[in-house]
Amino acid sequence: MTGEPLVLAVDCSTTASKAVAFDARGHEVATASTPLDLDRPGPGRHEQDAGQWWTATLASLGRCVADLDDPGRVRALCVTHQRESFVCLDADGRPLRPAILWLDSRAGAEISAFGSPRVLAVSGKPPDTTPALYKLAWLARHEPQMLGAAARVAEVHAFLAERLTGRWATSTGSADSLGLLDLAAAQWSPELLAVAGVRPDQLPDLVPPGAVLGDLLPGVARAIGLPAPVPLVAGIGDGQAAGLGAGVVTGGEPGAAYLNLGTSMVLGTPSDRYVTGQAFRTLAGAPAGTYVLETVLNAAAYLADWFRRELGDPALGGAPDPVLEAAAAALPPGADGLLAVPYWNAAQTPYWDAAARGAVVGLTGAHTRAHVYRALLEGVAFELRLHLDGLAAAGTPVTSLRAMGGGSRSPLWAQVVADVTGREIRLAEGREISARGAAALAWAAVGGGALADTCASVGHLGATVGPRPDVTAAYDPVFSLQQQVYPRLRDVFAGLAALQAPGSAGA
To answer: How many domains does the structure of the chain reveal?
Structure first.
């Protein structure tokens, strides 16, 4: 062997499966990515060929390992992945139908029928479009023969782990995204399985995140270019993994939270106690026995991209626009009296309203494209402030943010978020933060160290963006007004949704 040891991390996301080799200090040594296709077979429906999860992962691992000077340096592999997505398999592990993804919204009737305080108490998840529980209940109602004939129901981690090791098992930190776990007990819940129409024998065995699931199958090791099998370390969902990659972990800095300003906005902070509430969703954390309290808005960078594509400079085709950014940055806090409620993709935390819509309030003839753009960026930041207030009210205050994702690379947006929330922001360096979190799990498993110490070693934090107290004070009355918009328009949104419901006069 030449050189120091490495671990491999796979991030099988919604759009691509990426493989990254990391050293013990969290430096990327080699990386490869293979895209995944996304199908939209009907309104609100999002599906994927689960077979691509495997072929794309295998291809990326093979190219990543081929770029190493000595593949014998690899000591372990760990997988992180898109959450809430799942596939039904036959006894040989072949998909019986396309996988249903986390952003699929077909199960509105099932959310209304089965979402309850009891489901929240057991699963940790408020009723929402994302947990697989409700989409499994949809299958039980609309495709009962297929679901009943399925030998296995697998989230992404279980699917890949079985292909990699031959063992039908998954991490509790990955299985949790199905919404079928008794989260406090870290076991499948008979009560939730009955709601979903799933049998216990269809589900994989459970192990804690960071446990060794087994060695790679010899044929798999050969296929990706490893000279010998290495252990597969049980991973965790990509949101929690991003937190680990940014050093946000139980035993780390108190009051820290990760903030992903990607397509969606996801905020999460660790908790050593099991609590539930409407102001957040509770997830299984790492190390085992810990939790992550997470808030979600399914439109963050999505909004900025949408605006630039639909209303920006046509010549740029939606690409970042330095002129627009500069014009928006020159405007005062509050965008000269313009408010945006950023529910372009429904409302999640804390309203969990699938009928909610976006709104821009206060337009006058004096407003420009730059005003609307700034109002959208501020609207997302106001939602984050609302989320932070909810966590504080639940006894989990957040005092600092560690930001990642495309939105965090906009100096304007990072400063707006810091000013609106009054929190200091540390920018996470690198783009593969979830993969870095999976690498931390792998290093802790093979090295035997505490996960918090490992995360501190592999996490790379860059520039700090501090709030400006005078600007934060200027935002206070704007925030108060912005928070009045959704409650006053809730019934209007419901009426608009009813007009577009299948079979309605407006459909």
So the answer is: 1
Lowest mean pLDDT among 6-10, 301-305, 477-481: 301-305
pLDDT tens-digit map of 86-96: 999 999 999 99
pLDDT digits 0-9 by tens, 67-87: 999 999 999 999 999 999 999
Residues 6+ positions from 50 with CB-CB distance below 8 Å: 87, 95, 98, 99, 154, 159
Residue 191 lies in a domain: yes
Determine the structural domain holding residue 202 and report its residue range: 6-238
Rounded to whole angstroms, the Cα distance separating 120 from 466 reads 36
What's the CA gap between 90 and 153, in Å, rounded? 9
Taking residues 337-344, report their average pLDDT: 96
Evaluate whether residue 414 is within a structural domain: no
317 to each of 178, 310, 320, how far by Cα in Å? 37, 9, 9
- Please state the rounded mean pLDDT for residues 183-207: 97
DSSP secondary structure, 42-104, as one string: STT--EE-HHHHHHHHHHHHHHHHHTSS-GGGEEEEEEEE-SS-EEEE-TTS-BSSPEEPTT-
CATH assignment at residue 171:
3.30.420.40
Between CA 434 and CA 241 the distance in angstroms is: 5
Q: At 195, which amino acid appears?
A: V
Q: At what angle do helices 301-311 and 369-393 cross, to 10 degrees?
A: 170
Structural contact between residues 487 and 341, judged by C-beta atoms closer than 8 angstroms:
no
Residue type for 387, please? Answer: H
**Tell me, what amino acid is at 261?**
L
The DSSP result for 254-309, as a single string, is TTEEEEEESSSEEEEEEESS----TTSEEEE-SSTT-EEEEEEES-SHHHHHHHHH
Do residues 184 and 283 lie in contact, with contact meaning Cβ atoms separated by under 8 Å? no
Question: Which amino acid does the sequence have at 82?
Answer: Q
Is 159 part of a structural domain of the chain? yes
What single letter denotes the amino acid at residue 204? P
Asked if residue 341 belongs to a domain, the reply is no
For strand 187-188 and strand 181-182, is the pairing parallel, antiparallel, or unpaired? antiparallel
Residue 407 CA neighbour count, 13 Å, CB half = 30
- pTM tops 0.85, yes or no: yes
